[in-house]
Amino acid sequence: MTLIIGLTGGIGCGKSTVSALFEKRGVDIIDADKVARLVVEKGNPALLKIADHFGAEVLIDGCLNRPRLRQIIFSDNKQKVWLNKLLHPLIRTEMLAQLKNSKSDYVLLEAPLLIENKLTDFCDHVLVVDVSEKLQLSRACHRDGMDVDSIKSIIQSQMTRQARLQNADFVIENSDATFDQLARLVMELDNKFRKLCKLQ
Questions:
Q1: Could you give the strand order of the β-sheet that contains 106-110, starting from the edge strand earlier in sequence?
Q2: Taking the CA of residue 75 as centre, how many other CA atoms within 13 Å lie in the half-sphere pointing to its CB?
Q3: CA distances from 2 to 29, 122, 143 (A)
Q4: What digits encode the pLDDT tens for the residues 16-72?
Q5: Gyration radius (Cα) of the chain, Å
Q6: How far apart are CA 34 and CA 27, in angstroms?
Q7: pTM of the entire structure?
Q8: Which candidate, 23, 73, 85, 3, places its Cα nearest to that of 49?
Q9: Coil, strand, or helix at residue 173?
Q10: Which end of the chain has fewer CB atoms at under 10 Å, N or C?
Q11: How far apart are the C-alpha atoms of 122 and 84, rounded to whole Å?
C-alpha cells in the first residue's frame, strides 16, 4: 500500500511551493483545493445545487463565482456548514480515487484543512509548513490582493498554529528559508519518506 503524507499549513505558509518541490522529485500530489474545484466545475450536479441554494449571484457565465461564495460563507456559519455538507463527501470520494490511482513511491495529500476535516484518517504521517501569523498576513495580502481583515478571518477559520504543530510528524519552518534552503529541506524529507516506504 502506498505511503500517504498529509501536507498542510495555514494560508500564506508556502504549501504550494513545498508541494511543487516534491512534485519535481517525482512525487504524486493530490491537491484538495484542485479536487474541490473539480467537483464544482461547470455543469456538475454540485454546482447546480449551490446555485439553487445561494441564487444566481454565485455564478458568472455558468461558472462558480468563488469570491462571492467565499464572502457569503465566511459571514454566515450556517451557510458554510451547508456547503461543507454538500462538498466534503464529494471531495473525499474524488481524493480517494486519485490516491488509489497514484503511481509514485509515496503520495502527498495537500489540504489547508487537512486536520480540521479529518483527512489525517487517510494519512500515515503529517507534514506541516509553518510560519508566524504576522508573516502569514503579509504574504497572503501581497499574494492574493485581499485586505487584512479578510485574511484574518480565513486564519481564524483554520486551526491555530499551535494545534497544527501538535498534530505534525514533520515540520518545515519556512519563515526565512531561501528557495534553495527550502529545496534542500524537501530533498531531505523526500529521502526520509522513501526510506519509510521500504519499511512498510
A1: 28-31, 106-110, 3-8, 125-130, 170-173
A2: 8
A3: 13, 11, 34
A4: 999 999 999 999 999 998 999 999 999 899 999 999 999 989 999 999 999 899 889
A5: 17
A6: 16
A7: 0.85
A8: 85
A9: strand
A10: N
A11: 19
The angle that helices 45-54 and 77-100 make with each other, rounded to 10 degrees, is: 180
State how far the alpha carbon of 138 is from the alpha carbons of 129, 153, 180, in Å: 16, 14, 22
Give span(s): CATH 3.40.50.300, the chain: 1-27+104-200
Superfamily of domain covering 1-27+104-200: P-loop containing nucleotide triphosphate hydrolases (3.40.50.300)
Q: What pLDDT, in 10s, does the model give residues 150-193? A: 778 777 778 888 999 999 999 999 988 899 999 999 999 999 99
